[in-house]
Fold this protein.
Amino acid sequence: MSDHKETFWDRLEDINAGMLGLNATARFLPMSHYADDDTNTLWFITAKGTDLVKALQSGPQDGTYIVSSEKKGLYARIAGRLSLSDDKEQLDELWNTVASSWFEDGPQDPDVQLVRMDLTDAEVWATEGSLSFLYEIAKSKVTGSKPDMGDHFSLTF
């Protein structure tokens, strides 16, 4: 795995949520993701009655997932193909206390829907966090140089 991909996956695993939406609409919703770097996939647990699930019932669609974490030093626009999944084993593997807060009957709850995002590409900004940002701004004022705001790169999956 390239250094950039490793940075991306390592930091993404430490972030709990982002904003997910279909490219065909301008509506993005907060969602918790579950990352699988072996398959370049993100998983989401949601309810069957959501607009996202209703839209995906007609078939897979292109989507975007946005994450932003100053603490983890990752800002990314992640693109991929969203689809509904009925993979019970995957759902059982992902199930946790956060998901159980939304669905009273656990993974067997009839309203639970698993959404899969097969990643295609991402634009990523990896920074060293807020202290580094302040240092770089101060240094630029003293030296007259541009601040080093970290790495900016694109990934293809």
Remarks:
- The chain has five helices and eight strands.
